[in-house]
Design a protein that fits this description.
- The chain is an alpha/beta fold and 334 residues long.
- Helices cover 34% and strands 13% of the residues.
- Bound molecules: zinc ion (ZN).
- The site of zinc ion has 5 residues, from loops.
Length: 334
């Protein structure tokens, strides 16, 4: 204001010279920016945003009426899993979105990543019109989303050569293109589902590269994330990340904790933990989904909570030392 008043006196008339007008607009813009940042900080604090908090990445296999192993879920169990997530304010994002830090969910909500391994028909079977068969994973995801407006049925499907039970090239293309068209992510789970631990770099590249090429030629999509069979990393973990035919932004393991936020220094893109979907019993008393969701509910300071703005990383100032340098320009401490 002082500057403007002085300029007006110097020119001796009411009309301001162009340079002053420009300064005025610039000051306005700066003030607006400051006000909007203050508003963002206030809003983030109000919902207790915690974008350096942990994210559960849930691991599913088959969805079958009679679970044969502890990896299987029945349609009823899977529905209940999803209903719990809805109730506890989780919104699904894909694995690719997580590793890219593109966590676009409403303020106060928590991200969850739903992953499906082994590309079995119980996850995706379509009729000739492209409609999912009842009680498949995709049908249940869509059903729950339809019941809860705003709840997005996002998920990542980690594909092997099994290709949802399809052996004809055109049918494989139909399955993958349907996933892509419906907003689901197609990830790499290696061609033959071998344990990569102890194998040569050539074998690792062959296992990951050949299925990447097949996925790309069928669906015009290059997978950006991989789930390692049995959760085992190759001798050099980077072999799973980068090869002649692939360039992954994230590699997912099999157990046994929630994952650090991609904005946190604790995040390791080459080894992101997942949680098996299962009740608190036996081996799952502590380290599967029911137990961890209880824990995250009881420890909200540990859990990722969004501020609703995809372009900021909002968190209590106390956590500042954990912010990854590459996200410094997005940071919104409060
Ligand atoms: Zn698997």
């Amino acid at each position: 204001m002082g500057l403007l008043a002085a300029a007006a006196i110097l020119t001796g008339c009411d009309s301001q010279p162009a340079t002053v007008k420009m300064a005025d607009t610039k000051a306005d813009a700066a003030a607006k920016l400051k006000a909007s940042r203050a508003a963002k900080v206030k809003a983030a604090a109000k919902v207790k945003a915690n974008e350096l908090g942990q994210i559960p990445v849930l691991m599913f296999h088959r969805i079958v009426p009679k679970p044969a192993t502890t990896d299987d879920r029945s349609p009823e169990q899977f529905r209940a899993d999803l209903e719990r997530l809805v109730r506890e304010d989780y919104v699904p994002i894909t694995a690719a979105e997580m590793v890219a830090g593109k966590i676009d969910i409403p303020a106060g909500k928590h991200p969850v990543v739903l992953t499906f391994d082994d590309s079995s028909p119980s996850q995706l079977t379509l009729n000739e019109m492209g409609v999912p068969q009842k009680d498949t994973a995709v049908a249940i995801l869509k059903e729950v989303a339809a019941k809860h407006p705003g709840w997005r049925p996002a998920a990542t499907f980690y594909v092997t050569r099994d290709m949802f039970g399809k052996t004809v090239r055109e049918e494989q293309a139909q399955a993958l293109l349907w996933l892509k068209d419906n907003g689901f992510e197609i990830g790499n789970h290696t061609r033959d589902h071998l344990n990569l631990r102890g194998r040569s770099q050539k074998e690792v590249e062959e296992q990951i590269g050949t299925i990447a090429k097949q996925i790309s030629s069928l669906s015009y999509t290059n997978p950006t994330t991989i789930a390692l069979p049995y959760g085992n990393q190759p001798r050099h973990k980077d072999w799973a990340m980068k090869g002649k035919l692939y360039n992954h932004k994230g590699a997912f393991l099999a157990g046994y904790t929630p994952a650090p936020a991609p904005f946190s220094k604790s995040f390791d893109a080459a080894g992101i933990p997942r949680i098996k979907a299962m009740e608190k019993k036996g081996d799952c008393a502590q380290f599967c989904s029911a137990a961890w969701l209880d824990w995250l509910k009881n420890n909200p300071d540990m859990r990722y909570t969004s501020d609703g703005d995809v372009r900021t990383v909002a968190y209590p100032k106390y956590k500042n030392p954990y912010l990854r340098k590459s996200f410094a320009t997005w940071s919104l401490p409060y």
